[in-house]
UniProtKB/TrEMBL annotation:
<protein>
    <submittedName>
        <fullName>Biopolymer transport protein exbD2</fullName>
    </submittedName>
</protein>
<keyword id="KW-0653">Protein transport</keyword>
<dbReference type="GO" id="GO:0022857">
    <property type="term" value="F:transmembrane transporter activity"/>
</dbReference>
<dbReference type="Pfam" id="PF02472">
    <property type="entry name" value="ExbD"/>
</dbReference>
<keyword id="KW-1133">Transmembrane helix</keyword>
<keyword id="KW-0813">Transport</keyword>
<feature type="transmembrane region" description="Helical">
    <location>
        <begin position="20"/>
        <end position="40"/>
    </location>
</feature>
<keyword id="KW-0472">Membrane</keyword>
<comment type="similarity">
    <text>Belongs to the ExbD/TolR family.</text>
</comment>
<keyword id="KW-1003">Cell membrane</keyword>
<dbReference type="InterPro" id="IPR003400">
    <property type="entry name" value="ExbD"/>
</dbReference>
<dbReference type="GO" id="GO:0005886">
    <property type="term" value="C:plasma membrane"/>
</dbReference>
<dbReference type="GO" id="GO:0015031">
    <property type="term" value="P:protein transport"/>
</dbReference>
<keyword id="KW-0812">Transmembrane</keyword>
Length: 136
């Protein structure tokens, strides 16, 4: 009988490397890093911060609170009333207990609102409260 060329192929053609386990490991690492990453919550507004020559860079800020020129308070991109600042900071700080609160107050905002936000943050259990400034 006559043999065709496709019948003489050996079974040694399957000598490639199986990358499926490597892809599984890569996806598991990706999921691990996404789950354990700390995300910074932006205040959601742009403010005119005051200038200070003695400002110190903050290592990490878990919660950013913005105060606009017209005394609007913004947390996590949402306009909030002053009476709801403490419960919001309490909830956000429970997600990252070692984090701090950074208040981005406009230089024309009233000091009274700034003090109310600082008091609310400390009443929420956050001891590390800072005010954002511009450097020279």
């Amino acid at each position: 009988m006559r043999r065709f060329s496709w019948q003489n192929q050996s079974t040694e053609d399957d000598s490639g490397i199986d990358v499926t386990p490597m892809l599984d490991v890569v996806f598991i690492l990706l999921i691990f890093f996404v789950v354990t990453a700390t995300f910074v919550k932006e205040s959601g507004i742009d403010v005119n911060r005051p200038v200070a020559s003695t400002g110190v860079a903050q290592e990490s800020a878990a919660i950013l609170v913005g105060i606009r020129e017209n005394d609007e308070v913004w947390i996590d991109g949402h306009l909030v009333e002053i009476y709801s600042v403490r419960p919001l900071i309490q909830r956000l700080s429970s997600e990252n207990p070692q984090g701090s609160v950074v208040i981005q107050a406009d230089k024309n905002a009233r000091t009274e609102v700034l003090i109310q936000v600082m008091d609310a943050a400390r009443e929420a259990g956050v001891e590390n409260v800072a005010i954002a400034t511009e450097s020279y």
